[in-house]
Amino acid sequence: MAAAEGVGRRQRRRQETIDEVLAVAAEVMAEAGAGGLALGEIARRMGIQPPSLYVYFDSKNAIYDAVFARGWQTLLDSMAPLGRRLDDTDDARALMLLISQHFVKWAVENQAYAQLMFWRPVPGFEPSEAAFAPAVEMSRRTTQLFAELQRRGVLRADADIAEATTAWTALISGVISQHLANEPTETFDDGRFTRLLPVLSSMFLTHYGPEREIR
Amino acid sequence: MAAAEGVGRRQRRRQETIDEVLAVAAEVMAEAGAGGLALGEIARRMGIQPPSLYVYFDSKNAIYDAVFARGWQTLLDSMAPLGRRLDDTDDARALMLLISQHFVKWAVENQAYAQLMFWRPVPGFEPSEAAFAPAVEMSRRTTQLFAELQRRGVLRADADIAEATTAWTALISGVISQHLANEPTETFDDGRFTRLLPVLSSMFLTHYGPEREIR
DNA sequence: GTCTATATGACGATAGAC
DNA sequence: GTCTATCGTCATATAGAC
Questions:
Q1: Which of A15, A34, B112, B144 has the greatest count of CB atoms below 10 A from its CB?
Q2: How far is CA A171 from CA A197, A204, B148, B204, in A?
Q3: Would an 8 Å CB–CB cutoff place A110 in contact with chain B?
Q4: Closest nucleotide to B7 by C1' from CA
Q5: What's residue A1's pLDDT?
Q6: How buried is residue A33: exposed, middle or buried, by Cβ count under 10 Å (0-12/13-18/19+)?
Q7: 3-state secondary structure (DSSP) of residue B121
């Protein structure tokens, strides 16, 4: 019993340290860019020596991996409430735009994560399969959302859902990429690319929608 | 006279060395990723010592800057013939797709350059104004192309050309980003995102085109 | 002008004492 | 679990040979 409790405490404390490492890492990445993460800087801010980090992570890339996974998981969690709104709303097209804007806004306001999630800024780092899981789940839910939109007649009955999902992904990631690369200090509301989302969303829904309006 | 010739030879030789450095740098970046460029590796392949590189470039970032400029200039030059075809063709919509495909294909086949041109993979490196010039010129020509398409009635008379240019840029860079990040080893023809270009192009032209077809 | 030789300080990573 | 010591590599700077 006492032994089991001891293990529990130790593990709890270990997890807390791991969480702190990741939080500080995200801080450093936000200031220096995703590729500018330095173990010495993490250690300095935590008041420990760099080698101590190796007690919790096997390598620098393992830290990147954990940050990558955490980013997708956080974004995924933040989108869940919006997805559930689909049951209430009668304007699925407007909700679609809201979802797109929420997604891009998160990326613009969490650029350290977004660089790692949407680009390959770190030579030699490739996310592990486990870290990729939340990203795959995001893709799954997006496909599911489009299938539901099709069921409701917002998307054409003969629309290729897999294709629509890929197209939407490319659209959104294009806006994010251009913002991060060309005007990273601009706010979501004022960005040249982020402001295009209503147009792009309407473009997308016109193409995959049930009928094309006559102007 | 002899002195002037001597200077000419020296400068020519200097320029040749500079060109060799940039070619080797692009090689290394293609293998290790844009952020994985190492001066020692450039020097090793050239058969010189790393400090010798400082005779030709002030810093590593100066090499990145030159590669960045060269990438945009090369892409720009490779697109010029396609742009001129606008005068001959009677199917401007098809040419529009060809141009998009050419652009993306170049990025997919020159990933070392593309990473530097479309992302920010190197902490602390921001392209100089001079290096940015060919990229600005590319944007200018794109705007010009769309204005011409509008003159010909391929784009709506009341379409916002600046907005259309930004939207097209976001679309294209979305395809490139997703390909580079998720399936960089896939060919242009087989890529999940690159294959979407006809759909995306049609989506774009439907939105900005003169009338929306009824399905 | 161009190169080599050498030095500096930061980095990621490892070994081993405590 | 944390430290010190250390290694190899990196970008960069300087001194000096040719």
A1: A34
A2: 9, 9, 25, 11
A3: no
A4: C1
A5: 46
A6: buried
A7: coil
Predicted confidence (pLDDT) per residue in B28-56, tens digit: 999 999 999 999 999 999 999 999 999 99
| Contact between B207 and A212 using a beta-carbon 8 Å cutoff | no
Residues B201-215: what's their mean pLDDT? 82
Question: Is B163 touching A (CB cutoff 8 A)?
Answer: yes
Assign residue B161 a region: left if phi > 0, alpha if psi is -120 to 50, beta otherwise? alpha
Cα A23 to its chain centre, rounded Å, is 16
B134-150 tens-digit pLDDT: 999 999 999 999 999 99
Question: Residue A211's pLDDT is what?
Answer: 74
Task: State whether residue A173 sits within 8 Å of chain B by CB.
Answer: yes
> Nearest nt (C1') to B39 (CA)?
D11
Q: Is B185 helix (H, G, I), strand (E, B) or coil?
A: coil
Is the pTM higher than 0.90?
yes
Which residue from B minimizes the CA distance to A173?
B174
φ, ψ for residue A44, nearest 5 deg: -55, -45
Tokens encoding B158:
């009341």
Tokens of A182: 């060309």
Residue B3's pLDDT is: 43
Three-state SS string over A104-169 comes to: HHHHHHCHHHHHHHHCCCCCCCCCCHHHHHHHHHHHHHHHHHHHHHHHCCCCCCCCCHHHHHHHHH
Averaged pLDDT of chain A: 95
d(CA A155, CA A51): 54
How far the first Cα of chain A sits from its last, in Å, is: 74
Distance, CA of A94 to chain centre: 21
When CB atoms are compared, the residue of B163, B175, B213 closest to A170 is B175
Tell the residue number behind the tokens 């010739």, with chain if given.
B5
Read off the pLDDT of residues A32-43 as tens digits, 9 standing for 90 and up.
Answer: 999 999 999 999
> H or E element: which one contains A20?
helix A2-32
Residue among B170, B192, B196 minimizing CB distance to A178 = B170
> What is the set of domains in chain B, with CATH numbers?
1-58 (1.10.10.60), 64-213 (1.10.357.10)
